[in-house]
């Protein structure tokens, strides 16, 4: 929860930026409704994890995107 704009808007702006558009984004949030997950996907998230999450799950998602970037 951010002042003035939310994380979804930050993500949308990142994905519109030529310098940041290809940066993988993993959303970490306490919001776990279907609406929030869809909003995250529509905003450009590559992954969506809800709190609490296991560190192994986060590390696996990071590793997945590192491998994709190296291809």
Question: Can you put this structure into words, describing what you see?
Answer:
The chain is built from three helices and two strands. It is mainly alpha-helical. Strands 1-2 form a two-stranded parallel sheet. Helix 2 links the parallel strand 1 (26-29) and strand 2 (47-50).
Biggest sheet details? 2 strands, parallel
Tell me, rounded to a whole number, the average pLDDT: 92
Looking at the chains present, what oligomeric state does this protein adopt?
Answer: single chain
User: What's the helix-strand series?
Assistant: HEHEH
Any idea what the radius of gyration is?
13 Å
Q: End-to-end span in angstroms?
A: 34 Å
Number of strands: 2
SS field, number of helical segments: 3
Helicity range of the residues? 40-55%
Strand content: 5-15%
Strand order of the largest sheet: 1-2
Structural class: mainly alpha
Nutshell version of this structure?
The protein has helices spanning 7-16, 34-43, 55-70, and strands at residues 26-29, 47-50.
What's the structural blueprint in terms of helices and strands?
Blueprint: H1 7-16, E1 26-29, H2 34-43, E2 47-50, H3 55-70
Parallel strand pairs: 1-2
List keywords for this structure.
mainly alpha; 71 residues; 2 strands
